[in-house]
Write a structure and sequence with these properties.
Blueprint: E1 3-6, H1 8-12, H2 15-20, E2 27-31, H3 32-43, H4 47-64, E3 69-73, H5 79-83, H6 87-98, E4 102-105, H7 108-116, E5 121-123, E6 142-148, E7 154-157, E8 164-167, H8 174-190, E9 194-200, E10 203-208, E11 211-216, E12 225-229, H9 244-251, E13 256-261, H10 267-280, E14 285-289, E15 301-303, H11 310-317, E16 324-328, H12 333-344, E17 348-354, H13 358-363, H14 374-377, E18 380-385, E19 388-400, E20 412-419, E21 425-432, E22 435-440, H15 441-447, H16 449-467, E23 473-478, E24 481-486, H17 491-495, H18 500-509, E25 512-517, E26 522-525, E27 528-532, E28 535-539, E29 546-551, E30 554-560, E31 566-570, H19 574-584, E32 589-594
Parallel strand pairs: 1-2, 1-4, 2-3, 4-5, 13-17, 13-18, 14-15, 14-16, 16-17, 24-25
Antiparallel strand pairs: 6-7, 6-12, 7-8, 9-10, 10-11, 11-12, 18-19, 19-20, 20-21, 21-22, 23-24, 26-32, 27-28, 28-31, 29-30, 29-32
């Protein structure tokens, strides 16, 4: 009578229990090392561990029913042994050797090592049939299913842009859900074109043929949950009616392309069509995916993160001499940096990002890469909605005065974002102070509201940092001049000595700035001015009041008027000279009087 010692590989995928169905009253010895490894995986919330526990429970039932003799052997390894590569396999082989048993494995390397050691070995091939639970929920137009224990399954049905949710009239028990999850994991290990993409603490991602299955467990989720997504149709590039010039632009390798859209908009369907079309044109195309779920032809090799790092995958990609790389999809900062590195190395890039507008796709690069590099790495943005290409934007870099600014000395590098089909400029992206803004040009053309908004925010931020006060309002006198209204006692702090603060602000934002007290009874006007015998006479017309004199919004003089409502200033003084110079330059001179009744 033969004694069998199974290793972990044939336990977790169910091959061993299927094998025993053909044996008569066999003796099975389970290595404590194998039990400890499965327990460890289950404790970490890994689906492989739970699948293994289900199979071990089946073995216990078979033993209780008298179908097999079941025994346990060996020492329980430490947690360090479990994590050490090859240690568990060695302990399982030792169990088989010491009990003169047959090692049953589905691992080719384990098979070769055990045979080299002289251990009798039984290698189990993948079974040709398997239970197919999860497909039962999919109909012809079902794009995804959502299963949770003791809840009704929810199905999403329809094409992109026309998706509806439907709740089934059945309830999935937790035991049924565990069975479905276990079968998914087993099939991923046994069936061709299927694999476990990742098995983390509480989350397992499986690619099962053309279906992506995500299994979550505590502690990651509050209970076991399964989400499966399946493409319902595959389109070709002809289905998108792209113009010949746009195809030439993409195929020229002079561009970095972004495919943008919200979840479920049809981004993956479009990028698959693009990848296969480019490949059909004789170009070498690779993909970078995590998880690998694009449905592309066999000529296109699909790569995932190497040792958990897309940066390492990018390093390998540079050695593969590929013409185009599809990056599906970019989420975190290292992903965007890899895209930029590959694009600057001369590889044609097609990146996929979540975005609700085409401009949002570009903004996801801002702050992650230098602003000046964006037009070099992003040439074309295709925005997808409802399964269709709704807009195509292109970028270019120029040096110009941003729209809405009028001073030539404010010229700077500006990224122009235009509609590909109409050549209409939609956005300008540039540095504004210490921030970067994407300004919609169409709004700026109509009423300057976008420019005013950013300028106002910049002024408020600077003033609040300077004075620490919040009682500030800003009004536009015209497109080139604003007035800051604040408490009177703060005016001098805002203006600064000699007007330096206001001058710096004017230079930074490109607008002229006036400063006024925010009190409701503050009055302003244009004084009468006369110069005699090197004395400037400023006629306010209000006797015995405190008045302030401003030149182009900058406080120059504060004094009490005479009984005739006049303020005098000698041109030999700094204040008088400034006023005299303002008169010659025809600059705006105003007075402000607090508390006047008229």
């Amino acid at each position: 009578m033969l004694i069998y010692v199974p290793d972990t590989s044939v336990i977790v995928d169910g091959r061993f229990t299927l094998f025993l169905e053909e044996e008569k009253n066999p003796t099975v010895i389970l290595a404590e090392a194998m039990l400890a490894e499965i327990e460890h995986q289950a404790n970490e919330g890994r689906s492989l561990g739970f699948a293994g526990l289900e199979e071990l429970k089946k073995l216990r039932t078979m033993a209780d029913d008298g179908l097999i003799d079941l025994d346990f052997y060996g020492r329980r390894p430490s947690s360090a042994n479990i994590k050490e590569e090859g240690e568990i396999d060695d302990l399982i082989m030792s169990t088989a050797l010491e009990n003169d048993a047959v090692l049953v494995t589905g691992d080719q390397i384990q098979r070769y090592i055990s045979e080299i050691k002289g251990i009798r070995t039984k290698y189990l091939e993948h079974p040709k049939t398997a239970v197919r639970n999860i497909e039962e929920f999919f109909g012809e137009l079902t794009s995804s299913i959502h299963l949770k224990g003791n809840c009704n399954p929810i199905l999403k049905e329809g094409t992109p842009g026309n998706v509806n949710s439907r709740k089934l009239d059945i309830v999935i028990t937790e035991n049924e859900l565990e069975s479905i999850a276990s079968n998914v994991v087993k099939r991923a290990r046994m069936e061709e074109n299927s694999y476990i993409e990742s098995d983390l603490n509480g989350a397992t991602v499986v690619q099962l043929h053309d279906m992506r299955v995500v299994i979550t467990r505590p502690p990651f989720s509050d209970s076991v949950e399964i989400t499966a997504v399946k493409p319902i149709r595959k389109l070709s590039i002809e289905d998108y009616a792209l113009g010949g010039t746009l195809k030439e632009r993409i195929l020229s390798r002079s561009s970095g392309v972004l495919i943008a859209g919200s979840p479920g908009a049809g981004k993956s369907t479009l990028v698959q069509a693009l990848a296969e079309w480019i490949s059909s044109m004789g170009r070498i195309v690779k993909t970078m995916e995590n998880p690998r779920d694009l449905q592309v032809s066999k000529e296109i090799t699909q790569y995932t993160s190497l040792e958990g790092s897309m940066e390492k995958t990018g390093d390998i990609m540079l050695l593969l001499r590929t013409d185009y790389t599809v990056f599906d999809e970019m989420r975190i900062t290292p992903d965007f940096r890899v895209y930029v590195d590959l694009r600057l190395a001369g590889i044609g890039m097609i990146g996929v990002v979540h975005a609700t507008r085409a401009i949002d796709a570009i903004q996801r690069f801002i702050g992650r890469v230098e602003l000046g590099l964006i037009p070099q790495v992003i040439d074309t943005i295709m925005f997808v909605e409802g399964g269709q290409i709704r807009s195509v934007m292109v970028t270019e870099s120029v040096v110009k005065v941003p729209h809405g600014m009028n001073q030539d000395d404010l010229a700077r590098p500006v990224i122009i974002v235009s509609d590909y089909f109409t050549n209409e400029v939609k956005y300008e992206i540039y540095s504004f102070g210490e921030q970067i803004f994407a300004v919609p040009v169409d709004s700026a053309v109509k009423n300057e509201t976008a420019i005013q908004k950013y300028a106002r925010e910049g002024i408020l931020r600077e003033i609040r940092n300077l004075t620490g006060i919040n009682e500030i309002t800003i009004e536009y006198l015209n497109e080139n001049r604003v007035v800051i209204k604040c408490p009177e006692e703060q005016i001098s702090r805002i203006i600064g000595r000699g007007g330096t603060n206001v001058a710096d602000l004017e230079k930074k934002i490109g607008l002229h700035i006036d400063v006024e007290p925010s009190s409701e009874n503050a009055k302003r006007g244009i004084p009468g001015i006369e110069i005699k015998n090197r004395i400037v006479y400023i006629n306010i017309g209000k006797p015995n009041v405190q008045a302030k004199i401003f030149v182009n919004g900058v406080l120059i003089l504060q004094a009490k008027t005479s009984s005739r409502g006049i303020i005098r200033a000698r041109t030999s003084t700094e204040t008088g000279a400034a006023i005299f110079s303002a008169i010659k330059k025809n600059q705006k001179i105003e007075y402000f009087v607090e508390g006047s009744a008229d």
